[in-house]
Amino acid sequence: xxxxxxxxxxxxxxxxxxxxxxxxxxxxxxxxxxxxxxxxxxxxxxxxxxxxxxxxxxxxxxxxxxxxxxxxxxxxxxxxxxxxxxxxxxxxxxxxxxxxxxxxxxxxxxxxxxxxxxxxxxxxxxxxxxxxxxxxxxxxxxxxxxxxxxxxxxxxxxxxxxxxxxxxxxxxxxxxxxxxxxxxxxxxxxxxxxxxxxxxxxxxxxxxxxxxxxxxxxxxxxxxxxxxxxxxxxxxxxxxxxxxxxxxxxxxxxxxxxxxxxxxxxxxxxxxxxxxxxxxxxxxxxxxxxxxxxxxxxxxxxxxxxxxxxxxxxxxxxxxxxxxxxxxxxxxxxxxxxxxxxxxxxxxxxxxxxxxxxxxxxxxxxxxxxxxxxxxxxxxxxxxxxxxxxxxxxxxxxxxxxxxxxxxxxxxxxxxxxxxxxxxxxxxxxxxxxxxxxxxx
Length: 441
Known about the structure:
The structure is a single chain. The chain is α/β, with parallel strands linked by helices. It has 14 helices and 15 strands. The two termini are 30 Å apart.
């Protein structure tokens, strides 16, 4: 996710329709100076200060005029202001140099914001970003506890203090479990992530980490276990190996054994494996109920199963179509077989369509990168230029958040121009996927 580096942090750039701010005729370009006489440090202060039923909002207009609005509202009702920077502050950058850091494996000469490593607890609260807790002062930790800021998503990787210092290459990385125990005592809601690296934090170390996190029963809701991603741009970086068929099968056996134990003890499997492990192991994905509501969907945990279930439900509500069309589903190599299965299911309701699946080899990052979300526009252009198709259809996960840019800075428009074909984008949601397919082709 790209982070806004704009320093004009408390400038209003938009207003929510039918909101308090809209009714007060607050304008784009206005600057928020204070709430109840208190200067706003960041979004946490803002959310905390506007939670009261009676507030005084001090605004400075672009011409320098200052206005104080006296507002009476419902408790916790939002004002409807959208700021130039969602944090109302500059984002805190990461102080780690993780042995597996994906940003360190990016090619040179890409967009500046792609190289920014965020590690900001406020982004965790606002946008679901995962943080390591290594760059937080005692004051900041206590502030999270005092203001009960949650949920928080934490990249743990290991609870072994020495190993965590080695993995994150940060001398402050060893305090993770002590901090999490304080959050647990405060009953804050936490979701955790483990980037698993073979022969580093797996096997016995993984079991130790999962059992430590499981002991934090007041706070930790779930743990996602995801495989390390290794690009071809690793010059000067530690030598690591990725997951393959055997390693993935061994891992699944280990984690499913722990899941069974946790489920019997607490009613939850607690730890969940990313889809990539099951696909690499050539094993069926767990059933829908095994994901317990998909708490780690953004981590690629259950994404394939969830999409499959959504497609099945949406297809039931569709009448058979007589429309004709020709479309190619674009995906990464990891999901090729899955999308072939989706293609066959879709054809039952769209029998006059010609549908192809095109799995794109990732030459930009290296062919060991197989997920659809890291496919680039340039690779699509090179690999499908000669294909016979009318329309391309690709998942929104291939584009940077809230933009039409691929990771290599090629835009959707440039892709369409280069291929002289129409390109459709669908959310990774079964109903939306079929809606785009049925209405637009």
